[in-house]
Amino acid sequence: MSIATMTDSPIWQPFTQMKTADPPLKVVRAQGACLELSDGRQIIDAISSWWVTLHGHSHPVLAKALYGQAQTLEHVIFAGFTHEPAEQLAQLLCAHTPGGLQRVFFSDNGSTAVEVALKMAYQYWQRRDQPQRSRFIGFAGGYHGDTLGAMTVGQSSPWWQPFQPLLPPLTILPYPATYPEDPEVDTKEAQAIAQLETTLKTDPDAYAALFIEPLVQGAGGMRMCRPQFLRAVSEVAKAYGVLVVYDEVMTGFGRTGALFACEKAGTQPDLLCLSKGLSGGCLPIAVTLTTEEIYQAFYADDPARAFFHSHSYTGNPLACAVSVASFQLLLAHPEAYQGLEARHWQCQQRYLADVSHLKQFRTCGTIAAMELETEASYFSDLVPQLRRRFIELGVLLRPLGNTLYILPPYCISDAELATVYRAIRQVAIEVAEGYFA
Ligand SMILES: *Cc1c(COP(=O)(O)O)cnc(C)c1O
């Protein structure tokens, strides 16, 4: 199979061991929550194509916005120029994120949104004549993207081990991941906060910024924390002057059941990174929002004090126009993302409640996750087998280690969601029966 892939296609796939992976499945079209393969099979996209699709695939409103914009202005240099789609998008973002965030910097993917936040935070302290504030704080299990800066703040990830020597040191705090009726949640949170306080007390002027994925760590295993933890972390960091960066690349745009996780938790960062769902899953685009105070640290007569960062496609009009259309859809239909949490619980009750080796079922808005208890020793071989089995059952799911999660497009129907849960039920039972051993 792998030889066929090698000869058929020159493509080197992302996050894929090309030697052992199955040949990639060819998708010919997608509608709503469904992908159609070249052999005619229909697959339910239960992970929103890696967390980007919001309203469903090939959405007519987004397609129309894209087509209209493509006929008018497809792209233009962004330094020294602007255009209506970017202006509209920036206005929308400022109007619907916490009040203090009034400046919008464009880039083109989640990793670059994080790079921008990192460089802004670092340079901010130089502008404020405190260059010693050059270190960063992150959380165990945190993930912020694949470029070097993003890897720096997501350094606890096992994927980045080979690159460790290239990364500046990071202070890593424990993350109090929790689930309903977790008996240890208070202790875990208190320990994490205490460690943050000790870190900052020991070296009060060393840290530029703290990075956190608010409410849900995505790639780390859909690990959820309580809103009060997010508030406490942010308050302690701010008390020591450390800038707080919320990486809402995954959690933004309704994922957590509110428009943004920071809104849900009632807290506000100094910098906010958004991408993935920004364009509704249609085109690559990202923004880093920040406060007037940070903006003002760069605002000067001296050209050398400007923020030096740009990408060729910064502020791309097509991506901006689609993002505006997607945002308007979200605002018009909040029930689509607000209703999913209750639907997850109904399905859990119906299909999973009696599957004893599925533990720690948890939800945050549109996201549901659980742990599959199995013998860890063979689990790494099991993951690709599970992926393949889910596809056979007509569902795209990508377990993260022992974590099974569902992160569907908001348009998923009750019947489609039931199919996803029935597939999980069946696969979990097959695992217990040794079907994959
Ligand atoms: C996916 C992700 C990123 C990286 O985004 P890319 O567009 O893949 O570069 C950063 N942060 C979080 C929280 C993410 O989930």
TrEMBL record:
Q: Which GO terms describe its molecular function?
A: adenosylmethionine-8-amino-7-oxononanoate transaminase activity; dethiobiotin synthase activity; pyridoxal phosphate binding
Question: Which cofactors are named for this entry?
Answer: pyridoxal 5'-phosphate
Which residues are marked as site: Participates in the substrate recognition with KAPA and in a stacking interaction with the adenine ring of SAM?
A: F15
Q: Does the keyword Cytoplasm apply?
A: yes
| CDD domains linked to this entry | OAT_like
Q: What's a Pfam family in this record? A: Aminotran_3
The source's superkingdom equals Bacteria
Q: Does the keyword Cell membrane apply?
A: no
Query: Which amino acids does the record list as binding substrate?
Result: W50, Y143, K276, S310, R398
User: Sorted alphabetically, which keywords does the UniProt record give?
Assistant: Aminotransferase, Biotin biosynthesis, Cytoplasm, Pyridoxal phosphate, S-adenosyl-L-methionine, Transferase
**Cross-referenced PROSITE patterns:** AA_TRANSFER_CLASS_3
Q: Name one GO biological process term.
A: biotin biosynthetic process
Compartments (UniProt record): Cytoplasm
Identify which top EC class this enzyme belongs to.
transferase
SUPFAM superfamilies attached here?
A: PLP-dependent transferases (SSF53383)
Catalysed reaction, written as an equation = (8S)-8-amino-7-oxononanoate + S-adenosyl-L-methionine = S-adenosyl-4-methylsulfanyl-2-oxobutanoate + (7R,8S)-7,8-diammoniononanoate
Q: Record-annotated residues binding pyridoxal 5'-phosphate?
A: G110, S111, D247, H311, S312
Quote the cellular component terms of the Gene Ontology held in the record.
cytoplasm
Pathway membership of this protein? Answer: Cofactor biosynthesis; biotin biosynthesis; 7,8-diaminononanoate from 8-amino-7-oxononanoate (SAM route): step 1/1
Instruction: Report the EC code(s) recorded for this entry.
Output: 2.6.1.62
- Positions carrying N6-(pyridoxal phosphate)lysine: K276
Family per similarity comment: Belongs to the class-III pyridoxal-phosphate-dependent aminotransferase family. BioA subfamily.
Assembly notes:
Homodimer.
Name-wise, this protein is: Adenosylmethionine-8-amino-7-oxononanoate aminotransferase
Q: Which organism is it from?
A: Thermosynechococcus vestitus (strain NIES-2133 / IAM M-273 / BP-1)
